[in-house]
UniProtKB/TrEMBL annotation:
InterPro entries: GHMP_kinase_C_dom, GHMP_kinase_C_sf, GHMP_kinase_N_dom, GHMP_knse_ATP-bd_CS, Mev_gal_kin, Ribosomal_Su5_D2-typ_SF, Ribsml_uS5_D2-typ_fold_subgr. Residues 118-209 form the GHMP kinase N-terminal domain. It comes from Gossypium hirsutum (Upland cotton). This is Mevalonate kinase. Transmembrane segments: none annotated. Keywords: ATP-binding, Cytoplasm, Kinase, Lipid biosynthesis, Lipid metabolism, Magnesium, Nucleotide-binding, Steroid biosynthesis, Steroid metabolism, Sterol biosynthesis, Sterol metabolism, Transferase.
């Protein structure tokens, strides 16, 4: 039997950077997924294999070697998520170092640590093949690592004794609330291995889907009633998130009153975003009016982000290009490069979108459209494998 889990990526609709200083941000799932397929192997095969299809990396460990290095973990404890200790990180590093890891991709090693930790913690020392594929670009601020951890945790838990699933159901199915919470907690532990001190927003959005408001560590789930679609443009410009956050903090120290006003304005935009998307469109005119309001909020939000120093020439290229087509855009995430969101109103034609994508492509940017506010992690079973 093969179990497959898929988990969505995420975007920040409003409130990036302000959220670091205790203000509200709004994040949403997008219908671009990371997919993890897990097939248990017969005991005599004695290997655990990890295949990362999109980056062309394959790993294989004997179960005996994993037991030898991680013997201190003991029995699996799938129902009780715990943090990975520094001692265990060193042990995981030993297992990864034994593999032929390309120097150019060494930054992805923490994702393999997370795999080994989640696998042994939830399923123990069972031989299996795990295959990962994703529609999400790595390092673009779209929650690729969270989607990886969520889908991996979901697939592992589906074969544990901690969740009860209807394995006879065909197609994609969802977890019950308490079981989804367990997936989310394990995924957060994986995120901690990869990022150190993540906020928990990315894995929560990926697990539960739809929209989340986040303020001072408190997350509130929001049910969106608007069928919104975004064009996501990946500028492919790398950015130093820590440096961008530090620069905003420094600007806040130099100009406390002005920055307070800016951050308050960003929070007001976040609050209005969540109010609008929860409203029910009574007709097409009402929907168009709300889309226009959201477009204006995006433009205002981008202007405020520019004022705190987190835009970039590549982002401005996207903004100027989308403006030609009378479409609203804003950066998403840390800024300084990364990805830009462009709201695609329901009335826009496919021809216009194609022209916009072609023009943005001339800059070397990568574009893809995505619906927002969809379902979170899902699971399916295949008995033909």
């Amino acid at each position: 039997m093969e179990v497959t889990a898929r988990a969505p990526g995420k975007i920040i609709l409003a409130g990036e950077h302000a959220v670091v200083h205790g203000y509200t941000a709004v994040a949403s799932s997008i219908d671009l997924y990371t997919v993890v397929s897990l097939r248990l192997r017969s005991e005599d095969e004695d290997t655990v294999k990890l295949k990362l299809n999109d980056i062309g990396l394959d790993f294989s460990w004997s179960v005996g070697r994993i037991k030898e290095v991680l013997s201190h973990l003991g029995s699996p404890f799938s129902s009780t998520p715990t943090s990975c200790s520094l001692e265990t990180i060193k042990s995981l590093a030993t297992l990864v170092d034994e593999q032929s890891f390309p120097e150019t991709k060494i930054g992805l090693a923490s994702g393999v640590y997370a795999f080994l930790w989640l696998y042994t913690s939830i399923l123990g020392f069972k031989p299996a093949t795990v295959t990962v594929s994703s529609e999400l670009p790595v390092g673009a601020g779209l929650g690729s690592s969270a989607a990886y951890c969520v889908s991996l945790s979901a697939a592992l838990l589906a074969l544990s004794d901690s969740v009860k699933l209807d394995v006879s159901q065909k197609g994609w199915s969802t977890f019950k609330e308490t079981e989804a919470e367990l997936v989310n907690k394990w995924a957060f532990e994986g995120e901690k291995i990869i990022h150190g001190r993540p906020s928990g927003v990315d894995n929560s959005v990926s697990t539960f889907g739809n929209v989340i408001k986040f303020k001072s560590g408190v997350m509130t789930r929001v049910d969106s009633n608007m069928p919104l679609k975004m064009l996501i443009t990946n500028t492919k410009v790398g950015r130093d998130t820590k440096a961008l956050v530090a620069n905003v903090s420094a600007r806040k120290s130099r100009h406390p009153d002005a920055m307070c006003s800016v951050l308050n304005a960003i929070e007001a935009i976040s609050d209005e975003w969540s109010t609008i998307i929860q409203s029910h469109a009574v007709d097409d005119l009402y929907l168009s009016a709300n889309e226009e309001k959201l477009g204006e909020l995006m433009e205002m939000n981008q202007g405020l982000l520019l004022s705190i120093g987190v835009s970039h020439a590549s982002i401005e290229n996207v903004l100027q290009t989308s403006m030609k087509y009378k479409l609203a855009s804003k950066l998403t995430g840390a800024g300084g490069g990364g990805c830009v969101l462009t709201l695609l109103p329901t009335h826009i034609s496919g021809e216009v979108i194609d022209k916009l994508v072609e023009e943005l492509g001339s800059f070397g940017f990568q574009c893809f459209s995505a619906g927002i506010g969809g379902k979170g992690v899902q699971i399916s079973f295949d008995y033909s494998s």
